[in-house]
Amino acid sequence: MRRLMVSEFITLDGVVEAPGGEPGHPNTSWVFDYHGPELERYKLREIREAGSMLLGRVTYEGFAEAWPPRQGEIAEVLNSMPKHVVSSTLTAPLAWSNSTLLTGDLRTAITDLKQGDGGPILVHGSATLSRGLLDAGLVDDLRLMIFPVLVGGGRGIFPASFGKSTFTLVESETVLPNVVALTFRLADAKPALGEKQRDS
After folding, report:
1. Residues paired with residue 11 on neighbouring β-strands, in sequence order
2. Structural domain tally of the chain?
3. Cα–Cα–Cα angle for 44, 46, 52, nearest 5°?
4. Residue 9: inside a domain
5. 114: which residues sit within 8 A by CB, 6+ positions away?
């Protein structure tokens, strides 16, 4: 069974919306004050650990516009790795290389994906998709890079339902001064073969 990992930049008030300059939020670009090579090294390591990416439509369209013309290690990995896209409005074939459209029932599509061959599945951003995955109990690892800012509200990823899920902290890393990355694992989820816990 492939592990599904949701990775988010998140503020102290639980907002994941508009970290990188996306329009529509009055305090957009809240990651920019902390961006640097340390953050890029962390994200590169994260995507290298993944076998594929899973994206919602909005994040996919932003990535598909931004990454194909770029150069560098992150762009090389993102452009070449398999990508699965959840959308009810996009149509196949998708333009970005190695992208596959997933349609129909979310739980069924993602369960089938997790039961297939390959390494861990990484979800980056994609707030609506991440919330649906958490609500459906499909998330094995929840990776939160917490930034020391309050932005006054915005979209989050946590379901509003009264369902309960218990996670265990398996990794803690200070990526930048005042920026910490925490990885929580669903209590009954198993680590990948050969995976070691990091605490730095």
Report:
1. 147
2. 1
3. 105
4. yes
5. 1, 2, 3, 4, 121, 138
CATH of the domain at 67: 3.40.430.10
Q: Which residue stretches of 57-194 are H helix?
A: 57-66, 73-80, 106-114, 127-135
CB 159 within 8 Å of CB 88: no
Q: Is-above-0.85 flag for pTM?
A: yes
Within a domain: 195: no
Residue 165: inside a domain: yes
* Closest of 82, 157, 154, 93 to residue 126, by C-alpha: 157
Reported as a single tens digit per residue, the pLDDT across 151-199 is 999 999 999 888 889 999 999 999 999 999 999 999 976 655 444 444 4
| 144 bridge partner residues | 8, 182
